[in-house]
Each structure stands twice: as structure tokens, then as C-alpha cells.
Amino acid sequence: MSKIKGRNDGPGGRNEHYDVGSRKNVPRRNVVAEIKRGEHPDSHVVKINGREYARDNPDDSTHDNVNRDR
């Protein structure tokens, strides 16, 4: 289960910050760097319109998605 949760705090609901476990309001660039270093094996990085975002790896569950209902 992903411990990364998007805050939908940017324009149009983009995730500019994430809650990562007990850490709150972590900037997107930090979370992306952590994923690239392999610190979150259940997540990956996607690039949308030139920006990189955290995403949960595909599985049959929706309750652990980065953009799950709050």
C-alpha cells in the first residue's frame, strides 16, 4: 500500500505537495526524488506537461492510490 497521498493543492487540483506517511506537506520535487532513489517501491513517477508527479503502481485496489478520496 502506498503511503503517499496527494494534497491536490495546485492549480486545477494538481499535487504540488504530498503527505508521505507521517510527514505532511512534502514538496512534489522531494517526493519525486525519493521515488527515483527507490525509497517508495510501490510508487513510480509520471511526466505530465513537463512536470513529474508521484503515482501508485497499478494494482486492483483504489484505496491506496496517490489521489484517493480524502
Automatic annotation (TrEMBL):
Protein name as it appears in the record: DUF3892 domain-containing protein
Compositional bias annotation for Basic and acidic residues: 34-70
Superkingdom of this protein's organism: Bacteria
Organism of derivation: Methylobacterium oryzae
Region of interest: Disordered: 1-70
